[in-house]
Write a structure and sequence with these properties.
This protein is mainly beta. It has no helices and 25 strands. InterPro entries: Gal_Oxase/kelch_b-propeller, Kelch-typ_b-propeller.
Length: 324
């Protein structure tokens, strides 16, 4: 069966970065790299035509979720063990879903083929668990993998090999990766360490305006010339699970809406003009954020609940009968 995929990253945003033939292999570069990046033009898709395969921390609990909330069907996924995606990151490379690192095999790279997760011989250069993030780059030809427990480092995977690239200035454990102005970006850090935002350009990581809150465990989603930060876990006076939908645009943070249910440690995917957010906090709501053609938030609705207390589930768009 043909698996129909759209190139989305961990935060649900399409990522396409320029591949410069004269660029050193271990860097994102080219003088006009930012100007040559683009995001996929997103057209409306009827929610009854949307289907998302969800692989949670326990692989045997995988399911297929419809975009309109009308169905949630168990899916069968083969994996080396039932905790294979526990605390791992994921991204698409050359149209294939890949899994990186995680709690029990910290340097693994696995590829999803025909409803099976298959471990590759190539490994990550560093052990990455507890807060790593991944992002599809260069028109989906490669993935950027960053962070982890006390790590600032990043590396690039091209489907066959891994090479080091720029390390960030700040730690971003559970700070995620998303697109801001078509450049990889991370915000905040676990355990209330800081609220710093950084973006990766051709010359390395540079600072963006701090987020208004000390926050982590959110989802980042790139829109045209802006980026959303959804949910998360706050610290200090802003303690605990968050409902905020924040937008970074023109170097300013503004709250543009709220989730119906507070959540953190969730995953998001952008399909058509809607973001589907699978949150972690009882009742583990699945919420849909709808946007108009100008990228303005129009509506937030709950389309169901996850069937368990699943955090950081792997998400990607597929067809109505895949792996069931």
């Amino acid at each position: 069966m043909l698996l129909e995929l759209i190139i989305f990253n961990l935060a649900g945003a399409a990522v396409q970065l320029r591949d410069d033939l004269n660029c050193p292999e271990n860097q994102l570069c080219g003088d006009d790299a930012a100007e040559n990046t683009t995001t996929t033009e997103l057209m409306p898709i009827e929610t009854n035509e949307v289907f998302i395969l969800v692989i949670p921390l326990r692989v045997d609990k995988s399911y297929l979720q419809s975009g309109d909330g009308s169905s949630q069907i168990s899916a069968t996924i083969d994996a080396p063990d039932n905790n294979y995606v526990y605390d791992a990151a994921y991204a698409l490379v050359n149209g294939k879903l890949h899994i990186f690192g995680g709690a029990y095999d910290k340097t693994k790279i696995a590829r999803f083929d025909d409803c099976s997760l298959n471990k590759l011989t190539v490994r990550l250069n560093e052990e990455r668990r507890f807060g790593l993030a991944a992002l599809s780059i260069e028109n989906g030809k490669k993935a950027l993998i960053c962070f982890g427990y006390n790590l600032k480092t990043c590396e690039i995977f091209d489907g066959a090999t891994t090479v080091q690239t720029f390390a960030s200035d700040w730690t971003h454990r559970y700070g995620g990766l998303g697109l801001y102005k078509n450049q990889p970006t991370s915000v905040g850090c676990y355990d209330g360490e800081h609220k710093k935002a950084e973006t990766l350009s051709a010359t390395g990581w540079t600072s963006l305006p701090d987020h208004p809150k000390v926050i982590s465990s959110h989802s980042l989603v790139g829109l045209d010339q802006s980026m959303l930060l959804i949910g998360g876990y706050g610290y200090g006076n802003d303690c605990c699970s968050q409902t905020g939908i924040w937008q970074l645009k023109e170097e300013n943070w503004n709250q543009i809406g709220e989730l119906l249910k507070a959540a953190y440690s969730g995953s998001a995917i952008y399909i058509g003009r809607s973001i589907y957010y699978f949150g972690f906090k009882s009742p583990y709501a699945i919420q849909k954020l709808d946007f108009n053609e100008e990228g303005e938030l129009q509506n937030v609705e709950q389309i169901g609940n996850q069937p368990g207390n699943f955090y950081w589930p792997v998400l990607f768009q597929t067809v109505s009968d895949y792996c069931i």
